[in-house]
Structure formats: C-alpha cells, structure tokens
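Q: Here's a chain of 456 amino acids. Please give me its 3D structure as tokens.
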Amino acid sequence: MFLSGVIEGFYGPLWTVAERRELLDSMKAWGLNTYVYGPKDDLHHRVLWRECYDAAAAAELGERIRACAERGIRFLYALGPGLDIRYGADADFQALRRRLEQLFDLGCRDFGLLFDDIPDRMHPEDAARWGHLASAQCDLTHRLRDALRERGEVRFHFCPTPYCGRMVAAKHGGEGYLETVGRELDPSIPVFWTGPEIVSEKITLEHAAELARILRRPPLIWDNLHANDYDGRRLYCGPYSGRPPALRGLVAGVLCNPNTEFPANFPALHTFAAWVRNPSDAWDPAEAQRSALSDWLPRFASAGQPVQPEDLALFCDVFHLPYSEGPGAEALRSAFDSLLSADPSTWSTEAVRRFLGPAVRLRDFCVRVSELRDRPLFQALHRRVWELREEIDLDIKYVEHHADPARRGKPFHSDFHLPRTYRGGFVASLQSRLHLRPDGSFSPGNPAAQSTGKGP
C-alpha cells in the first residue's frame, strides 16, 4: 500500500478537534490514506513518553482513531522516546509497552518509533551491549513490535537519528548508521526519510534509489517542504513541487508535515493530493496551484470588499515555498530593486507603475484579510499579513515620496515606521549581527549601523 497523507508532527500548538475533523474529511475527499499523529508539543510524544494519557485525552484519541477508520484512513501513532531512554533498561521497555498497549486498546494498529532530533549517544551500558546506536534502536523496535503482536496484528515504522542526507554526511548517529539499519531492521518496517535536507527543495529519483539500496527497502518520505515551525515569520502556501511523480514508484509513500497553522495548509495539501493522484509522470505545479486557489477562494469571503483571485495568487506567491517566491512576488521585488538601483530623477512613469500597481494591490489585500468572515483563517494569517502590510506600505510611501518632483532629494520619513518600534526587539538586533552568505557561511554584520543603548 502506497502511504499518502498528512503528519501532525511539527513543533508548535496542536491542531484543534475541529481542524482535525476538517482535515480527515478533506483527506477522504482527496484520496489520501494515512494520518500520522506525532506533534512535538504533545508532551506525551517526547518529554513524558513514559506516561500514559489520562482518561479524557485517551477518549479524545480513541474518537480520532475511530474517525480515521470511518473514512478509510490509517491512523499512525508516533512516539519519540530517544531523549533519555535506556535501551537495555526493562523499566523503560515496560513503560513503552504500556504506552503502545494503551493506544492498541483504543484501536490503533500502526505505530512509529521516532529517534529523530535526539543526542546521538547511549548510556555506557547500552553501548557495551549493542556497540552501535542503530543496533540498539532496531532491537528495541523488534522487541516492542513482538510484544504488541501478542495482542494482535500491528505495523511498525521507524525514524532514524540521521533522517536526511546532510545528517548522514555529518555522521550523525555514528559511522555506518544507515547501513546498520538496512542490515538489522526487519525489512517489512518502513523507514522515514526527509530527503537530502531536513527541508528538501528537491527529492530526485537518484537520491531515492540510492537510499533504498542502503536501507534495503523503499524509504517512506516524511516531507517537510511546507513545514514552517522553524521560522515563525513564514508561511508556505505554494504548490507541491520538486518531486517528480515517478518518485512514487521508488518509495513506500509520501507524508506531508505542513504549516503549524492548519487553515493555511489548503494549497499545500490540495496540490500534494493532486500529485498523488496524478496518473502520468508529467507534473505542472503552477496548474495545480491555480486549481487549489480556485477551490480555496470561497474561504476568503469578506465582510468588506471581496477578495479577487489575482490578489490571493499574489499573496501566495509572497508566502510561497522555502527556497523560492512565486512569479508575482519575484516580479514585484524585481520592480522595486530596479527603482532602488537608479537615481529617482531617472525613474520612468512606467517603472514606478510597475512597482506601485501590484504593491498597492498586495497592501489592500492585507487590509481585507482582517475582514474575513472565516475568523480561524484570519487568525492563522494575521501576524504575517500585518508584517507584510507594514513593509509594503513603507515601500509604497518611499517610492511615492521620491517619485514626486516636489519632494525628490529630501529625506524620507514615515510617521508609522519609527526606530525601535519598527523592526525592533532583541531577535531583530541579533539578526543584524551575523550576515548569512549565499554559500551558507556567516560573516559579521554591521552592528554599528544599528541603534544602540537599551533597545536594539
């Protein structure tokens, strides 16, 4: 069975009961078959992995498991004990067994043991017993699976400590970690993998084939393309891309771990589901995005002026994908850069119009977001939208000021963008200290150019 679906596996606030119900209904309608529950901020997932859920939380999980079953969706519960587990300690094994047996009694039959984002070391006694972290993790997985099978048929899934190509290259988890997993882990147990990077721009056929050779099984892709939990200022509303449809023949499945803000995930999941259903090896992300935004537009019903399709498309071009902006955002930035690189006295009316036209549309769209009737959608968007509005409004005023012959050459000030209240705060101050180069290296910035004193 090719697994396709959604992972609630991010760092950040959990989705609500209503949001999960909407997700499952959409997954059924779109033909997705797997929901993974493993959010890092469920304390019982990692920090309190030894503790069972209380009666109320267990009842809610049981309802979710039944909701999945009613829709023909596989519910996979993921547990991450790796922060402090003693692989050879019977007390820890029994605690894990109790945790999984509680889920089994609630109806869960699919389990994932996640050893990601943990120290790649063991207790000395564990190291003496197994010799390699991967060996200890594989053995624990087998013992737990065999214990659960005393109750009935179950399926286990495994997330390695180095779960992307860069981590393997850095020998995270130890020399030969993946090769050890390939040799020692039961080949019927799928292994999660995020691609060349934690957030991979592309996952090629060659990469998947080489990984399958090492693991001795097709990998199960945990796809972080639309995950935004590592950067609270960004959303990803662009289309599923960078994965050729032929990849489906080389992997055990693809599961999306999307934005923390559930209402913002419609384009990501809509286009991903279209990619899963796509019958050919040809894939047009732009066409998939147009279809997704057409279906999403009714959610932008407003109490004020209606949202236009082209404005929603421009907004999603701004909040596009981690490694790129959409064409509308790129054109807007290019138009602004062209103005900034020239003396204002040489600006043509057409060059100014080329920037101000889409910039004003984008600013006005940000205003209309506050008038959305779908308040959860507004709440998911408003912090980023407000920041975007402030920036684009400043740019518009700057261009209007210098395009006006009567003001040209005079210093530009904004009454709404003042030192320390605008682009202020300690984090912004720190960000100015180190400059990130295109090659990924850092160099000192120019803190002398920043505000000094008590504030940034």
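Q: Can you summarize the key feature?
A: The beta strands are 3-8, 34-37, 74-79, 110-114, 155-159, 192-193, 220-223, 253-256, 434-436, 442-444.
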